[in-house]
Structure formats: C-alpha cells, structure tokens
Amino acid sequence: MLESKTDNRVIPENTEVLGNCQNPHCITQMEDSLPRLYTRNEKGVCRCVYCEHEYQG
To answer: CA 46 to CA 5: how far, in whole Å?
Structure first.
C-alpha cells in the first residue's frame, strides 16, 4: 500500500491569492506551479509570501 506524504507548510490565516509578483527575482517568476500568495499586515499592505515584495495591484 502506498503511503501519502503530508504537506506540513503553514499558511498564515491572513493569506490572499493575488496576481503575479512584480519582483523579477521572486521564485514565482520561475516556478509556474507555485500559488501567488500574499499576506496583508495590519496597515493593509500586501507582501509576497516568498520574497516579501510589496504588492502593487
């Protein structure tokens, strides 16, 4: 029987899926399979989960 591996990544509860990260060096620019995840801080600013670049949408 095959055992399934569990994904242990923790995604913060204030995470949003937005458009592409504008940082040309962000991992999401090279890896199409990664979701475009952003966290919103208490001031309402969204930052990329992977590179911390501020979302300009």
So the answer is: 31
